Amino acid sequence: MSRQLTDFMATLHKNGVEEKRLSKFVSHNVSDDIVTFSISFPEEGQYGLDIYTREMMSVLDSSGEKHLLTHCCKYLINSSKRN
């Protein structure tokens, strides 16, 4: 991480598949300033991965409410079986 971030979330997408069904195939781990996302694709195909986070300094606004997660990046991934 190039700056202090917190509350990471990733969502996996595939045409014709419910996002909720794919949520169990994505996880993340934070160790110091390194964030690692692990993805296990349930089948071959093209997937989208969206990553969301929020800056550490802006977690709470003046009323004490948490700020919404901010879309950080998007990846298009082609998954296929190894021969």
From TrEMBL:
Signal peptide: none annotated. It comes from the Eukaryota. It comes from Tenebrio molitor. Residues 5-82 form the KY-like immunoglobulin-like domain. It holds the Pfam family Ig-like_KY. InterPro entries: Ig-like_KY, Transglut-like_Superfamily_Mod. Coiled coil: none annotated. This is KY-like immunoglobulin-like domain-containing protein.
